[in-house]
Amino acid sequence: MYTNIKSENYEQEKQNMKSQKLYWDYVDGKVDTNINYLDSENIKYNYSFIYAMEKQTDTSYSIIDYDIYTSCDLSSMEEYSAYGINETLYTYMLENRTQPIYAIIVSTIALIIIAIYLIWSIGHKEGEVGITLNSIDKIPYEILVFVCLMILSIALAVVVNMGGTINYVILLVGILGYLLCYAMCAVIGVTTIKRIKAKKFIKSFLIYKIGKFCFDKIQGWFRTINQNATENKRIFWYYLLFIIISIMLVSLFYTGIAIILLIGFWIWAYYQIKKYILEQEKIKNALKDIYEGKSNDVHLNESELKGALKEMAIYVNDIASGFSNAINESLKSERLKTELITNVSHDIKTPLTSIINYVDLLKKENIHDEKVKEYIDILDKKSQRLKKLTEDLVEASKVSSGNVKLNLENINIKELFNQTIGEFKDRFEEKNLIIETTIPNDNIKINADSRYLYRIIENLFSNITKYALEGSRVYIDIIEKEKIVDISIKNISKDKLNISSDELMQRFVRGDKSRYTEGSGLGLSIAKSLTELQGGTFDIIIDGDLFKVHIIWSKV
Amino acid sequence: MYNILVVDDDKEIVGAIEIYLKNEGYNILKAYNGKEALDLVNKNDIHLILLDIMMPEKDGLETLEELRKTKNIPVILLSAKSEDYDKIGGLNLGADDYITKPFNPLELIARVKSHLRRYVSLGTIKKEEDGNVYSTGGLVLNDDTKKVLVDGKEVKLTATEFNILKFLIQNKGKVYSIPDIYENVWKEEGFGAENIIAVHIRHIREKIEINPKEPRYLKVIWGVGYKIEDEK
Questions:
Q1: Any CB–CB contact under 8 A between B177 and chain A?
Q2: Measured distance CA(A375)–CA(A377) in Å, rounded
Q3: What topology is assigned to B3-122 in CATH?
Q4: pLDDT value at position B17?
Q5: What is the ipTM of this complex?
Q6: Distance from A352 to chain B by nearest Cα, in Å?
Q7: Does B198 touch chain A if contact means CB atoms closer than 8 Å?
Q8: Cross-chain residue pair A425–B12, CB shorter than 8 Å
Q9: Does residue B222 sit at the A interface (CB-CB below 8 Å)?
Q10: CATH of region A404-554, choose from 3.90.105.10, 3.40.228.10, 2.70.70.10, 3.30.565.10
């Protein structure tokens, strides 16, 4: 035994140690010490030592009562003790505490780069375009996450509760647990990124699939109602649904939100009905347009409509396009006809020019033979009539196909009639026709193309000079009414009128007797077409020998 | 002796026109398409051209366009095309007149004469327009001598006709209705005699116009009134 205790007095030395240094005392299983927290509860015993001590009590030495005091000088132990090592480490770390920051920065950057690369590359398989999903990615998302979190939490529980004592089994379980934790995190992370990249994230939720399934079922049910049921049954189903939802909401009335929902539902239902009626109105208007001949403007948007309304819209569109096609076709053929007539008339006019000119030259030759003179006269008349016919033909076809450009302006009907009567006065007087006019004193303005309006009156007056009974009266009455001007021109025909007024207005038709006289028979047809083109109405009334033309025009 | 060039691919028409114009004492040159016509114009001193539109090689409008780059000779287009836009198109290209086929030989001669007079004699002389002489185009009304000249040729008008024409030519370009004319010429309000004025106007037109149905000077605006066209 070695000791540096020099004192003889045991008690005194004990007090000395207690006062100056750390001491530790073990007496009869009891500990006495001045080291903080190192009382009996916190002391680890070296059992073998205690055992040896206790064993000694049985020996012959019989040391029944002895104390052991140990003490140490900390300054000399510094380097080797656990405290010393920790102290050294602590000082080292304190001095170099700035160093790891660089490591942190570098590793964070590396982490970000790797993460970006991984996020970017996940799901791409060599030789395949797009995102490749495996069977894990097809498991509904919340189920997968739930399972992974279960495994994760079990593994974590194992790892955390391993306790202080370590043996190989526990170590193995721990390592496995950590690996499982990482694996689960990786699985969730990877599959989430892949699903988002494949744009299937929301779709991969089980709840989405269930919702979509229910929605499809309900929609399918609605579609069956919409397609197969009659309008009558459909209304019934919709109404039933309305009542059921209303009752459901009313029965939940004690909660405040149900009232709001119910009112909202009713407003929604009102707007649905309103929308339906407005759409119906649109179809009605389209039908009205077709009825009024404006089928070109009709185009209903079928895709906006549903059910019976959609069907209606499709039918209406079909009818409208059929109508406008037919109208366009007939317009086109009318235009082609006009073009053809115009071109043919050009081709006729050129040789006709020679005929007229050479007939005229023949007339100037010194011919004494009366017969030849008579023949030349006939040639002259007929060639002139041919000329008039071609001109009228072109005009009639242009006017009846609406192929004229109107230059509408305000025209004074009174002035027009005075001018026209002035133009024809001599020709009327030649036939001893007496003109009786009733023309109001005030000016009457109508909207018309002045040249074509003159053409109408000119044609009528020219007919009168040709077909009126000589010495009879011609009545021209202009009657001003609230919104219209009523023009009537009456004369007595010199020949019996044995055809109807409708026939008279058709192209090329004349009273039989007049067939061999001058004129083309197109005058009335042209006058009627021109009147109608400018928005007036043109009627012919035949009453015995009385021939009456009735023109109505709206005033400005 | 004036040289007139007649251009038409129809030889008979050219022949007939030749006869008519020769009777009037003009010298005729003939061409059957646009190219020939341009050749003749360059080689001869030509005073007037009658030009058909529809021709092979070079049609009338192309010929006219080419011609107008260098020459100022009066050109009367001659065509079977009688649409307004054909006439307007031709006149805009620089034609002086437009006659549709089949034409009245008398009208053709009258127009030829009128254009020649204007081109050769009147065109160069500056019209004296003092207080009592009024004119538009080839129409001249002299209030002192009470004479009316159309392209230098005197036209006989009655006193009423002269007064109406004087009033309209004094206010050329403006449109006057029958009551306006009555008030201004007779200096009193006229009732009942309205179509008398219209008759007078028609008579004036028949005297001063080559084709009264398509008047050049005294225009009728149906339903509005009458006016004298203001020609420079």
A1: yes
A2: 5
A3: Rossmann fold (3.40.50)
A4: 93
A5: 0.79
A6: 6
A7: yes
A8: no
A9: yes
A10: 3.30.565.10
Residues from chain B contacting residue A418 (CB–CB below 8 Å): 178, 194-195, 197-198
Domain boundaries, chain A: 10-77, 122-204, 229-290, 404-554
Q: Which residues, in sequence order, are bridge partners of residue A68?
A: A26
What residue segments make up the domains of chain B, in order of their start? 3-122, 133-228
Cβ pair A353:B105 closer than 8 A: no
* Fold of the domain built from segment(s) B133-228: Arc Repressor Mutant, subunit A (1.10.10)
Q: Rounded to whole angstroms, how far apart are CA atoms B161 and B147?
A: 12
Mean pLDDT by 10 residues, chain B (232 residues): 90 92 91 89 90 86 89 90 84 90 88 84 53 82 87 86 90 88 78 77 90 87 88 66
Out of B191, B200, B223, whose CB is closest to A412?
B223
Residue bearing tokens 């009313």? A250
DSSP line for A303-351: GG--HHHHHHHHHHHHHHHHHHHHHHHHHHHHHHHHHHHHHHHHHHHHH
Q: Spell out a b/e string for B198-211, using b for 16 or more CB atoms within 10 Å of the CB, else e.
A: bbbbbbbbebbbbe
Could you tell me the two tokens for A341?
Answer: 């007539």
- C-alpha distance from residue B143 to each of B151, B162, B163 (Å): 17, 9, 9
CA distance A298 to chain B (A): 34
pTM check: above 0.90: no
